[in-house]
Design brief:
The chain is mainly beta. It contains two helices and eight strands; from the N terminus they run H-H-E-E-E-E-E-E-E-E. It has one domain. Helices cover 13% and strands 38% of the residues.
C-alpha cells in the first residue's frame, strides 16, 4: 500500500529527457515524394526512408543511411524542420542548443548534409 503512494512521487523525479523519444521525424516537403527523414536528437545523425515498388509490384521500404556530413555530430539537441517549399526534397537539421543548421538530402543512395552554419 505504501509503495503505491510513493510511485507517483518517484515518477515525478524521472528526468524529462529519459521520457522523450530519441529520434525526431519529418516528411520531405516535396509534394510528390514519400520520403521521411529521421534525426537522432542527441548525435544529429540523419537517415531517410521512403516507399518503393519492386518489379513484381510489391512494396518495399527503401532506406538511405547517413553519408557525408549526416553522421554523428557534437552532442546537441537536434531536430528536423521541413521548409514550406513544395518542390524541395531536403530538410534542415537544427541544433536547438547552438542554433546551427545544415541542409540534408538524399544523394546517390545516402543522406548527405552541408556543413553546419549559423
Amino acid at each position: 500500500m505504501r509503495t503505491r503512494r510513493l510511485l507517483p512521487l518517484v515518477l515525478c523525479l524521472v528526468p524529462l529527457p529519459a521520457l522523450a523519444g530519441q529520434f525526431n521525424f519529418v516528411a520531405a516537403p516535396q509534394k510528390d515524394l514519400n520520403r521521411i527523414y529521421r534525426v537522432d536528437r542527441v548525435t544529429g545523425e540523419v537517415g531517410a526512408c521512403q516507399y518503393g515498388v519492386k518489379e513484381d509490384n510489391t512494396g518495399v521500404t527503401l532506406c538511405f543511411p547517413a553519408g557525408d556530413g549526416a553522421g554523428k555530430q557534437d552532442p546537441g539537441d537536434y531536430i528536423l524542420i521541413a521548409s514550406n517549399h513544395e518542390k524541395e526534397s531536403a530538410v534542415f537539421r537544427v541544433d536547438q542548443r547552438t542554433g546551427s543548421m545544415s541542409v540534408c538530402y538524399v544523394w546517390k543512395e545516402q543522406v548527405i548534409c552541408t556543413p553546419p552554419g549559423r
